Structures are given as structure tokens and as C-alpha cells.
Amino acid sequence: QHANVIYLVSAAWLPFALQSTDRMLVQRNWRSALSLALLLTFMTLGGDPQSAYHAGLLAGLYALVLSRKRGQQLEAKSKIPRWFQHRFILLTLAGVLTLLLSAIQVLPTWQWTRQSRRIAYTQPHSIYEIPSTWQRSDAASKTTRSSQQPASLGGILSTPAKQTHHRHIYHFSVGPWRFAELLWPNISGKMYPVHRRWINQFPGEGRTWSPTLYLGWLPLLLACMAWSLRSPDQTVRWLSYLVLLGVLASLGWFGIGWLIYEIQSAVQGQSATSPAI
Fold it and tell me: Under a CB-based contact definition with an 8 Å cutoff, are residues 8 and 2 in contact?
């Protein structure tokens, strides 16, 4: 993402945010909650609130991982009240401070985005849009929520209509064939100075978000050596789940439904008329 400056800003702060998250949740350190809020604010004011949001989700995931096992004993001599050292209290503290510190940019942006065409939809395509859909339907008619629920679920499970924002967000889905770039940076072809990206000829290849997924052999090797979903180290387990969920989410359009559709089409010898998913 060297050509997209705002993502470089958030990427620079991300390791420190993860470190502060670890200290905050493992050591129950309120100072780390303050530093985490400051780092998330730097991401937001740097132009990338999405990465700050993702870091917050990762912190919540880590808190759940830690809660499955008895945590360390809190210091009895600490002057800080025990309730204030609760993990979810610290998470809330970090979140509220982030909103307060970045409000000067978040509030006017939120006001303007309410007029964006991205917010226009008739059926929700995520769990976040279900409450507003119910609110709109209740304002338009006196129908009950139970009658609106099937339509909401239908919107989530259906294919987004073309020329809509819900469809556009899938344009940059990472095809599974691109994972070869982790080993060979230019195996898909270069985009510049002369465009020779031959992988664009793939029927499923869409718009390109990042020129290559290559991060280097050494980081990849070290990550594979450390990756473990059953590690006794809770930090390793958390980061391993982070990698797994991140890879699955990056597939986007090319998820399980797409795979079943392609297999069904191959077996039938033509495009599936009614795909399983």
C-alpha cells in the first residue's frame, strides 16, 4: 500500500496499538488504555478510521480469548479499584477516549456521510443496517418487526444489486490465486511503469487494490513458525486467530458461496441457474 498514504499512517501505528492492547488486557494497566486511545486517535485523524475500528475489534477478540482462562491475580496493594481493572472496563475507557479525542473530525464527517449515496439502501446487507431498516419500515407503515425480519435476512443472504455501494465494496476482493504473491512478488505481473499484469485476464479477477501481497520471505517464515491456534501463549493464540480471520475476510466475494457456485457450474457444465448459496 505504498501508494495509499493514509494506510501507511495507520500501518505505522498498528504494531504499537497491538502492544498497548496486550499490556492493557494482560497487565490490567489503565495507562495502556490511555496510550491505546491515543494511538487509535492518531489512526483516525491520519485519515483511516477503518483501521482504528479494526484494532478495536481485535482488542475485543483478545479480551474474549483471555476471559476463557483464569487471568492473573490483580495486585492486592494497588490503589486502583478492582472494578476499574476489569478488562471490559478498560476497553470501554479506551473506546470513549478515542471518540472524544477524535470527535473534532468524526462528528462533522458523520454529519456529511448521512447525505452520501453510500447510505442509501432498501434492504440491509450487514447486521449493522438491520436496526435502521426496521426504523424506516416502522416509520413508513405500521407493520410489525416480525414481518420485516425475513426481508432483512433476505437482504443479507442475497447478492447485492449492481451499481450499488453494497456491490462496490466487493470489487477489491482478494482472489485465492493471489496468495502466490506471498512467495513471489511479481508473479501476477507488474502494474507499472508499464502495465503487464497478466492475471487481469482471469474471469474472476476484479479491480486491484494493492499491487502485490508480498511482505518478504523472512516475515512470512517467522509468522508460519509462530502460528498456532492451540498455543499455551494466549498472545500467540490471539494473533493466530487474527491472521486466520483476516485471510478469510480478505477473500470477500470469493468465499464459500463462490466456491460452491464454481463447483456446481463445473459439474453441470454451465453456469448454475440456482446456486446453492
Answer: yes
DSSP-based three-state secondary structure for 173: coil
- Per-residue pLDDT reduced to its tens digit, 45-88: 999 999 999 999 999 989 988 887 654 555 544 566 666 678 88
Largest CA distance in the chain: 72
User: 170, 52, 173, 169: which is closest to 118 by C-alpha?
Assistant: 169
Give the global pTM: 0.76
Helix intervals (H) in the chain: 5-26, 30-45, 49-67, 87-113, 130-140, 145-157, 165-168, 217-226, 234-251, 256-268
Instruction: Say whether 189 sits in a helix, a strand or coil.
Output: coil
The DSSP annotation for 126-163 comes to SGGGHHHHHHHHHHH----HHHHHHHHHHHHHSPPPTT
Give me the residue label for grid cell 511503469.
193
Let me know: does 26 contact 68? Beta carbons within 8 Å. Answer: no
Half-sphere exposure of 48 (CA within 13 A, CB side): 20
Per-residue pLDDT at 274 exceeds 70: no
Q: CA angle, 22 as apex, 19 and 25 as ends, to 5°?
A: 145
